Structure formats: structure tokens, C-alpha cells
Amino acid sequence: MSRGTTQTLEIAVLPGDGIGREVMGACLQVLQAAQGLCGGPALRCTTYNAGAQYYAESGVALPDETLKACKESSAILFGAMGWPDIRHADGTEIIPQLDLRMELGLYAGVRPIRWFPGLPRVLTDERAKEIDFVLVREQTEGLFYARGRGRVENDEEAYDTMQITRTGSTRVTEFAFRLAEQRKARGKSSRVTCVDKANVFASMAFFRKVFDEVASRYPAIEKDHAYVDAMALTMVKKPWTLDVMVTENMFGDILSDLAAGLIGGMGMASSADIGDNHGLFQPAHGTAPDIAGQGKANPCAMLLSAAMMLEWLAFRHDEPQLATCGTLIEKAVEHALAAGGVVPMEYGGAAGTADMTKAVIDALPIALRALPQ
Ligand code: ATP
């Protein structure tokens, strides 16, 4: 396919720490190879400093230059940040990703979970092959509002306050319903589930009320509600029944790790942090200090996150070739795993980061031939 545009899009690349750096290296190789096959606008990927390691060297976790580049770029590719031994003076972790969410208004944490043929199944039920849902996590308020605001009184009592606003709840719920509409257009089921704890907390009852108001504007999309504890059970017992879920920040934080566990590990869990003006694409996993520096990380979550970026850019810039390129990467990951030649170490196989990267790059031309022309 030939390049049909002269547009160049700036991509801010923040590899971060630990395996974030390793999976980002893999991602940039795959992106280049995929774009070589698909064409579309050029992506100018520029790497910037941020994270715990950089903080240890410089005393700054998120330099102004990096933040400025993130604000000015078309999209942000993010590895992972944080390190157990490198902390702020008050003992808190270096997690600039939370600052970026607030600075750039990245209110929707989009966590798609689906089973890939070729992966060992965690759940023995045959229907586990049908797992295909998206968790949408509100990311700018909820219990995380308490970050930096919590207080301990007289060494006896501690308080962290949850914030739920109409604006925050409306925009993330709207996002979830629009996502369900897109899934419906692709022939998937289209139900949005509000995950809350409305039976106990006023804040959560309010979240549900706003959800219902938004839902009434989407009559073609089914809606329902679940308490977060019941949802944890449903996720394990019959996750194949789930479609799109929207939930509060802390609940989403916990449920997204549970969701990744359903498909065997963090290395397959992609994610996107989306706002009205910016998009940041990162694997759902952290820096994995236990395996960092050993070439063992599964890069697939990072690759699938880059595929999400391409799809998002395609829509925003009206560049369909970018969407094709995103689909190509997703299909190449699928093919590499399904072909059975590589099993990531995370799943007990022998394939490290370099093997997985090579397998995906080798699968790109095969995946391209299989794409509808
Ligand atoms: P954070 O709090 O930053 O999200 P975490 O400490 O909860 O991070 P991770 O860094 O995501 O957790 O790691 C959790 C477990 O999953 C670790 O055992 C790690 O080795 C494993 N893991 C995470 N990502 C990958 C990956 N891409 N490939 C293989 N194993 C991974």
C-alpha cells in the first residue's frame, strides 16, 4: 500500500522504568515495521525523560520539557514508571502517570480484555475463549482524589476522601456508551454496566444516578448495574457475559488487574488513557522489578496499546491507513500466538521479549495478506 498523505504526527515516547523500557523498544520496532507495510502518515517518535530512574538522576520525575512535549504531541506512548527503592522524600512512589492523567485530563482509562487463541486458558470453562470486554475506569477523581490530600489525625485516625462529580461521572459514562455504540457497529454485543457500591455510599449512589441519566440518552444501548463485589465474582465465574463496564477510579484500578488475570497475565493487557484533547497509550502493567533487565517481559500489552493509539489517531486525523496499521499489529500478535511457535515466558513458555518481538514482526506480512482489502 502506498503512503496517501504527507502529514507527520508527533508521538511523545516515555519508556520510563524497568520493563517499560524493554517493551517500548519492542514497540518502536514493531511500529516501524508495520508502518513500512501499511503506509499512512509518518509518526515522528521522540523519546523523553520521566520516571523513577530519571528522578534518581535528576531529582525530577516529570520534567517540564517532557510535560510540554506530551501536551503538544498528537499522542503519547508510555511504558511503565515507578521503582520500589526510589521514592519521594515522604516515602510515596514516583508515579508521574497519575500527574499526566490530571494535567492532560485523561479521564477515561480504557482496558480491553480478550482471550487470544494460543494462550493457555486460566479458566477451564470453554466459554472463556469468548472473553471480550472493556473496562472503562474513571481516572481523574474517585478515591484517587485523596492522593496528596489524605490526613492522619493524632496518629489515631486517617481520612481519605472520595470525590464524585457530575461532570466527571457524565463524561466517563458518555465515553462508555459511545464505545458500546462503536462495538455494536462492529457486530459485538452492546451493554454498558455501571459498577458501583450504590447500596452503601452516597457518592456511589450519585455516580449511578448520573449513569442512569446518561444512559437514557442512548436508548439503543442496553444498560445494567452491578455492585463492585458482585462484579468481582462475575468476572471470575462468567466473564464472557460482560461487555462494557464503567466504574470509579479505585474500583477500576483493582478490577483491571483481576481482568488481566483472566487472560493469564499483565503482559497481554493493553490500555489507553483518553481525554477530550489527549491520548496516552500504555500497557496496564507496571515496571515488574522482579523480571526487569532480564529480557523476559511479554511486550504484547505494549504492542496492543500502540495498536489502540493508531486506531485513535486514525479517527482524530481522518487517516484510515493508521487504523489499518493498528489492526495489522493486533492481528500479527494474534497470529504469532496462535501459530504456536512462541509462548511468552509469562505463560511458562520460552519466548522472551526479543523472541516475541521477532515473532510479531515476522507475522506482519502474513497478517497483512489476511486483512480485507
Ligand atoms: P504497578 O503498581 O506499577 O501497576 P505492580 O507492582 O502492581 O505494578 P506489575 O509491575 O504490573 O505490578 O507486575 C505484576 C506481576 O506481573 C509481576 O510478577 C510481573 O513480573 C508480572 N508482569 C507484569 N508485566 C509483565 C509483562 N509484560 N511480561 C511478563 N510479566 C509481567
From TrEMBL:
InterPro entries: IsoCit/isopropylmalate_DH_CS, IsoPropMal-DH-like_dom, Isopropylmalate_DH. SMART domains: Iso_dh (SM01329). It comes from the Bacteria. Pfam families: Iso_dh (PF00180). Pathway: Amino-acid biosynthesis; L-leucine biosynthesis; L-leucine from 3-methyl-2-oxobutanoate: step 3/4. Its cofactor is Mg(2+); Mn(2+). Its EC number is 1.1.1.85. It catalyses: (2R,3S)-3-isopropylmalate + NAD(+) = 4-methyl-2-oxopentanoate + CO2 + NADH. Keywords: Amino-acid biosynthesis, Branched-chain amino acid biosynthesis, Leucine biosynthesis, Magnesium, Metal-binding, NAD, Oxidoreductase. SUPFAM superfamilies: Isocitrate/Isopropylmalate dehydrogenase-like. Residues 10-360 form the Isopropylmalate dehydrogenase-like domain. GO terms for molecular function: 3-isopropylmalate dehydrogenase activity. Belongs to the isocitrate and isopropylmalate dehydrogenases family. LeuB type 1 subfamily. Homodimer. This is 3-isopropylmalate dehydrogenase. The lineage of its organism: Bacteria, Pseudomonadati, Pseudomonadota, Betaproteobacteria, Burkholderiales. The gene is leuB_1.
